[in-house]
Amino acid sequence: YQRRVHGGEMIEDVKRLKVGLEAIKVERKSNEAFKGIFNQITKWTKFLGLVDSLKDPSMKPRHWEKFSKEVGKTIVGDEKLLLKDLFCLDLDNPKMADKVDDITVEAKQQLMIEKKLTDIKTRWANLSFTTAQYRGDINEVMMKEEESDKVDEDQTTVQGMVSNKYVSI
Question: If we measure between CA atoms, which residue out of 49, 52, 29 comes closest to residue 41?
């Protein structure tokens, strides 16, 4: 039987271990046992923080594919993912930790952009237009002023998204 990954809960457990270790009265600089345990707790704290980042709902299959390429092993971020699958990847290595951070930040930014685009799409789908005679046979298309202002604002938002490094066109 193997438990599923719950990084947040485990981080709290490791923090409690660290507090307990720090409460022990020993000569810390020269005590190899203390230093070894402290280093392992620090390593686990970093590792579990990275695991927690990887479990973020913003991580989509494309991000897991990118992560898999970085680690050189196929990793699927589903309910079958076990802690041991990630532990053997050396995630606490500073270079690997930076790559994990880059991928998870990208995932979070892209999710935020996707949500904004969904909001804009919904808003634009519900726009109502009216027509009025302009000159002779020519009609003018019009909308309410507040809707027009929101369309202008949305266009500015989309233009800003295009220049975002997390958007691929």
Answer: 49
Q: Which residue type occupies 38?
A: F
pTM for this predicted structure: 0.76
* Cα separation, 146 vs 143, whole angstroms: 8
Distance CA 100, CA 54 (A): 8
Q: Which amino acid is at 28?
A: R
Dump pLDDT digits (tens) for 98-146: 999 999 999 999 999 999 999 999 988 988 888 888 888 898 988 888 8
Residue type, 127: L
Tokens 């923080």 label which residue?
49
For 31-54, the pLDDT digits (tens) are 888 889 988 998 888 898 899 899
Q: Say which residues have a Cβ less than 8 Å from residue 122's Cβ, sequence separation at least 6.
A: none
Q: Is the Cβ–Cβ distance between 103 and 67 less than 8 Å? A: yes
How far, in Å, are 48, 65, 105, 107, 116 from residue 110 at the CA level? 23, 15, 9, 5, 10
Q: Which strand (E) or helix (H) includes residue 130?
A: strand 130-135
